[in-house]
Specification:
Helix content is 34%, strand content 24%. By secondary structure, the protein is of the alpha+beta class. The chain has one domain: Double Stranded RNA Binding Domain. Strands 1-2-5-6 form a four-stranded mixed sheet, covered by helices on one side. It has a two-stranded antiparallel ribbon with strand order 3-4. Helix 2 packs across helix 3. The radius of gyration is 21 Å and the shape is globular. The protein starts with a helix and ends with a helix. About 13% of the residues have low confidence.
Length: 173
């Protein structure tokens, strides 16, 4: 590459740099600059209130606690609770379904898997700076035999961990 061609490429790069920055993930705006910078969250919390519009008060109640605990576990190294400038991460759940489970086979037509769907929303300064959509499924047998005591709680905990794990993975942090 000759000197003139390099100069044109450099000028073009400087001209387009402000537009390229807009293509980066929105949560990167709140990350610290520099190599290996990692976003930190003031808090992580589950919000299952969208389930209420479908009459899912019971689902919302049993899911929010375990999901918040799993989010805190999965994002533990990214928590900065004392930092007032750090954004919040809210897992807003729009769909939660636990299949009827009878010894490894579903007895309904929807399918033999527990499902959870929602968005990981990064809130900074009272506004949404990014959103990551997650839909994940897990076979009920993953959590143990259907006849064991406390299986439903383990199933909720397992699908909550699955959601938190995939949220972090899809956010690339």
């Amino acid at each position: 590459m000759n000197q003139r061609e390099f100069g044109r490429r450099a000028a073009l790069g400087l001209l387009l740099a402000p537009f390229g920055a807009r293509l980066a993930p929105a949560w990167a705006e709140v990350a610290e600059p520099g190599a290996g910078a990692a976003i930190r969250f003031r808090r992580v919390v589950a919000d299952a209130s969208p389930l209420l519009q479908y009459g899912g008060a019971g689902s919302a109640r049993i899911l929010e606690g375990p999901l918040t605990a799993q989010l805190r576990h999965v994002f533990a190294d990214r928590l900065a609770p004392g930092d007032p400038h750090a954004p919040d991460l809210i897992a807003r759940i729009t769909h939660f379904y636990m299949t009827s489970y009878a010894g490894g086979e579903s007895i309904d037509a929807i399918g033999p898997e527990d499902n959870i769907e929602g968005d990981g929303i990064v809130m900074s300064g009272g506004r949404q700076s990014s959103s990551t959509h997650i839909l994940t499924s897990l076979r009920p047998s993953f959590s143990g035999a259907f006849y064991t005591q406390g299986i439903d709680g383990r199933r909720v905990d397992s699908i909550a961990y699955q959601f938190a794990y995939w949220l972090r993975r899809e956010m690339n942090i």
